[in-house]
Amino acid sequence: MRILIVEDVAPIANRLLRLTKEALKDDPIEVVLAHSLTSASVILESQPFDLLLLDLNLQGKDGFKLLQQVVSEPFHTIIVSAYADKAITAFEYGVIDFVAKPFTEERLALALHRFQCIYEKGDSYHPEKPLLKDLKTANYLSIRESDSTQLISTSQISHVNGAGNYTEIHLENGETFIHSKSIGNIEAILPDSFVRPHKSHIVREDLITKISVIGDHKYAITLSNGHTIPISRNWYKLQRGKSDKR
What we know:
The chain is of the alpha/beta class. It folds into 2 domains: about 1-120, Rossmann fold (3-Layer(aba) Sandwich); about 135-245, CATH 2.40.50.1020. It is about 30% helix and about 35% strand. The chain has a 5-stranded parallel sheet, with helices on both faces. Strands 12-11-10-14-13 form a 5-stranded antiparallel sheet, with helices on one face. Strand 8 (about 140-145) and strand 9 form a beta hairpin. The radius of gyration is 19 Å and the shape is elongated. The model has no long low-confidence stretch (mean pLDDT about 90).
């Protein structure tokens, strides 16, 4: 597990370093410090990370500029900032937590535990156990194309397909984009309007029009835009169980 801390105040950076190592002491971790947006950008371009701890005010520069660049990257981000009024906006960009300064050891540990749960789950699929649903608050996904970054509202997404370490993001209008986050990491930040009925697929629940048996132990859902998505037997049984209780 590799973590980058971006904080320009040395005592706070050192405290974050110490508390992060203490909170994750049971995991093999490597923590790197960056004291400016410029150095953070250079480091992120040259090394892979699993988590970014980011301040939003670094030597008078807006950390949101870096956040907007990295939300399209595979790793997750936790904001550690005194600008609590920016928390809603940060969550809309898909950060997994916002720790307000001044912070306690317990509050930072909670944020790191949330990340640890996501990290350990990876892309594993548990239809009966939604992942940290109270944290799914992203209103946008950021897509990097060549030298530009495009923000896509999650309300435009119809479904998501896993493609190895990447995902295919399908919009209602038929457009498709490639995102560098894996399907597990995408699942961790999408809002509650999405469900994962199959290990390789996530769909917007309100677009589901039909659940069908299509063969021997094979099942599928049909979306309002005509797409047919395979679903797991367990997810099918869960939906049947919900219907029987009504």
